[in-house]
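Why should sequence recovery work at all? Because a backbone constrains its sequence more than one might expect. Tight turns favour small or flexible residues, buried strands favour hydrophobic ones, and helices have their own preferences. The token representation captures these environments compactly. In the example below, the structure is given first.
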């Protein structure tokens, strides 16, 4: 069964999408009922009529509420990191949103941040001890196919989370081969303990990732001039490695009226992820994971209390 899944599989990816894997390729697409809603998105109208993407209004309704609730989780992470001298920075679409919209990308509700491996290994225990909201917690989450990252989550709903991605020092500008070999080894560690999603299984995953991470740290040279995305997650970005001075020393940027950490050179960093045209409309406009999901009464109360 596992062999067949490596060749071809289609699985749910959240409430609104499915993900197809074919011979190593990964394709995410909206479920039928949401594909039509996506085509009717107001943002396609803005794009078609060449309205400056930087002037688009913020999201409204349920999507906006979930954005702001996720922002509350990010602000708690920011508080904990500042109290304990840990460094993180806005990454991916969150950094892009900061530069282009001074906040969330209007159609997105994700929050992505990154940390260097040394701080990444500390954040679970430190966050869970220091958080002022005992409904929030940090833990590893297994994403399937040998991928595992840390998330800040809410105990009473799966809708709210902040993704935390690890970064490592590297001596190579293009370390594809070393990343590939380490990635295969890490996935072999993880897959031994992913037959179920019980707490015991997740703890075993965490234990083995921690062991593997220590081996990574033993090979890291902190005097190298490049930083690469951690092998814990299969990134789709074309540039996995950035010069040290593009990321450090960290800078600050405005995100939803909050001054938060970002990379030293956001322009160069975003070009490495999205290309030189990152400031323009993307070819495909997506929608937030929770834009059309049905909220329970309890979830509505949780979100209201956070915002």
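From this structural description, the recovered sequence reads:
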């Amino acid at each position: 069964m596992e062999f067949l899944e490596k060749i071809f599989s289609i699985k749910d990816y959240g409430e609104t999408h499915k993900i197809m894997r074919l011979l190593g390729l990964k394709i995410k697409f909206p479920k039928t009922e949401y594909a039509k809603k996506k085509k009717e998105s107001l943002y396609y109208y803005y794009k078609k009529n060449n309205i400056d993407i930087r002037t688009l209004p913020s999201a409204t309704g349920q999507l906006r509420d979930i954005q702001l609730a996720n922002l509350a989780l990010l602000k708690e992470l920011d508080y904990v990191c500042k109290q304990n001298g840990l460094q993180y920075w806005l990454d991916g679409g969150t950094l892009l949103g900061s530069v282009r919209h001074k906040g969330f990308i209007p159609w997105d509700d994700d929050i992505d941040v990154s940390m260097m491996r040394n701080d990444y290994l500390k954040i679970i225990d430190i966050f869970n001890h220091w958080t002022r909201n005992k409904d929030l917690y940090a833990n590893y989450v297994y994403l399937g196919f040998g991928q595992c990252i840390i998330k800040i989550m809410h105990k009473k709903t799966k809708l709210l989370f902040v993704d935390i991605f690890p970064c490592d020092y590297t001596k190579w500008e293009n370390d594809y081969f070393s990343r590939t070999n380490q990635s295969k080894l890490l996935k072999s560690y993880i897959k031994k303990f992913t037959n179920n999603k019980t707490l015991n299984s997740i703890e075993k995953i965490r234990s083995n990732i921690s062991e593997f991470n220590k081996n990574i740290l033993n090979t890291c040279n902190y005097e190298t001039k490049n930083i690469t995305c951690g092998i814990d997650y299969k990134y789709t970005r074309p540039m996995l490695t950035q010069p040290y001075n593009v990321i450090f020393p960290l800078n600050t940027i405005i995100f939803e009226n909050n001054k938060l950490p970002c990379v030293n050179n956001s322009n160069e960093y975003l070009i490495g992820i999205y290309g030189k045209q990152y400031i323009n409309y993307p070819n495909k406009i997506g929608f937030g994971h929770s834009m059309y999901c049905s909220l329970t009464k309890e979830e509505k109360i949780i979100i209201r209390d956070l915002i």
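A few observations help interpret the result. The chain has two domains: 1-37, 59-306.
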